[in-house]
Amino acid sequence: MKNRNLLLFFVFAAAFAPLIVQCQSGQAQKVRLIIRIDDMGCSHATNTGIREAYKEGIGRSVEVMVPTPWFPEAVRMLKEMPGLDAGVHLVLTSEWTNVKWRPLTQVPSLVNDWGYFYPMIWPNDRFPAGSALQEHPWDIKEVEKELRAQIELAKREIPQLSHLSSHMGCLNMNDETKALFKKLGREYGLDVFLEDYQVQYMPGPGDNTLPAEKRVEKFIENLRKLTPGNWLFVEHPAHDLPEQQAIGHPGYEHVATDRAGVLAMLTDARVKAAIEELGIELVSYSQLK
């Protein structure tokens, strides 16, 4: 009986092997593109822009910033969009000049004299000395404590979480933070690591002052250059509202017009038509796993 079952196993395996190879080959011949829309929670205009980029455009995965002022609205919106794949955009900075956010936990090595996250991770010539986290003796234990709090709140409130990402590259500070990112992803079941799926980065238009028309042209040009495999495009759509017009930091004062241009590009009918014409498959982080 045992030998007979073994024989049946090999018969079925031989029969289905060609189909498996065909599926894998077909997938390898496809361009699979994740359009990731970042910074949900940092402003109302960002939240509404992200919603439009998903419902009317090509956004497929959204990154949510938990300590930000508009996180409660982001949670409500995501419950109304259960099909939108979501990731925790882990935060250790508060970069805008006129609006700030604080950590969820008591982590004195990660905050400035006002109790806010520092604006930058790495020193930046446009900012005063001491504006970057790397200029201070931060504690990896406090980093882990704060990131766990962000993940746990997001997991409690957002059912469709699939992955982690880091805002402004905060977990690329050194080998210790990179290892922490991996550990937290595995522990919380959010372990969709792009390098495991050979994901390549699709370039953007290259100039965030371009008018919407030029962005569309450049985006379609870049779509045509994609080769078979997994690709990621990251951008930050938002509506050009008075609230967004008040947001900025040294060297990036045109946030509202830039991000409205991104939204226009991601919802443009010509972009959607080009994706269909080229046979590009739009996917999310969760579809990689």
In short:
This protein is α/β, with parallel strands linked by helices and 289 residues long. The chain contains 10 helices and 7 strands. 42% of the residues lie in helices and 13% in strands.
Jot down its keywords:
289 residues; alpha/beta; TIM Barrel; seven-stranded parallel beta sheet; 10 helices; 7 strands
Structure classification: alpha/beta
Using the coordinates shown, work out and report the CATH topology: TIM Barrel
The string of secondary-structure elements, in order, is: HEHEHEHEHEHEHHHEH
Fraction of residues in helix: 40-55%
CATH architectural category: Alpha-Beta Barrel
The coarse silhouette is: globular
Unreliable parts: 6-26
Number of domains: 1
Radius of gyration: 21 Å
Can you count the beta strands? 7
Instruction: Count up the helices.
Output: 10
CATH class assignment? Alpha Beta
CATH superfamily: Glycoside hydrolase/deacetylase
Our estimate of the beta-strand percent is 5-15%
Q: What summary fits the major beta sheet? A: 7 strands, parallel
Description of the structure:
It is a single chain. This protein is an alpha/beta fold and 289 residues long. It has one domain (31-288): Glycoside hydrolase/deacetylase (TIM Barrel), CATH 3.20.20.370. Helix content is 42%, strand content 13%. It is built from ten helices and seven strands. Strands 1, 2, 3, 4, 5, 6 and 7 form a seven-stranded parallel sheet that branches. β2, α3 and β3 form a beta-alpha-beta unit. α2 (44-55) packs parallel to α8 and α6 (212-224) crosses α8. The two termini are 37 Å apart. 37% of the residues are buried. Residues 6-26 have low confidence and may be disordered.
